[in-house]
Amino acid sequence: MSRSGTWSFATVRGGVRVAPDELRIRRGLAQTVAESGRALAAGRVPSALRDVGWTGIGAVAMVVPPAVEWLLRGGGSAQTALGLIGLITAVGGVATSVARERTATVPLRDVEHVGFDEGEIEVVYRDDDDERETETVRPRDDEERSDAAVALRLRGVDLRGIEGDEAVSRTAVDAPKTELLA
Question: Could you read off the pLDDT of 153-172 as tens digits, one per residue?
Fold first, then answer.
């Protein structure tokens, strides 16, 4: 535990901090890009690309035809310059969105339960619209998995699936459930 009262455990793609009143899940850049790829493969627009909007579409529409002409002639135009400015703006929006998506913050009061299943930890919670959401992380090793269970149990989170889990210490399994202090 740190001086700020925060426990943490490492995951395969980042880390999780179990603060006194919230979970902070930080993903690495590779996981964010992989999630965007899965969304595209499933026919959905990834949240990172939603910020491109009309600026990005306009930039592509302005840049592609003149860029081809420019490459063929060896010159440029004002339309190409404006398109490049729009394209840079769109890329900046995507980069900002990706950076924002790398960290998820879940208030502990909104967590329904945390499930331990086959090496993964699934946090089930209610979002601001009272919709059920999940965040899934994979601890780096059994020691990190055990640390996760202890930290979450000490914060009063309902843990499921730890009874038969050999990686989780008996301290977390046998400890009485505590209540979240506000």
Answer: 888 899 998 887 777 766 55
Q: How far apart are CA 177 and CA 31, in angstroms?
A: 32
φ, ψ (nearest 5 deg) of residue 7: -95, 160
Task: Give pLDDT tens digits for 104-136.
Answer: 889 999 999 999 988 899 999 999 889 999 988
Terminal CA-CA length for the chain: 19
Phi, psi of 98 (to 5 degrees): -65, -45
118 DSSP assignment: T
pTM of the model: 0.59
- Sequence-separated (6 or more) residues with CB below 8 Å from residue 110: 125, 126, 127
Cβ neighbours around 100 below 10 Å, total: 13
Sign of the four-CA dihedral 31, 37, 40, 45: positive
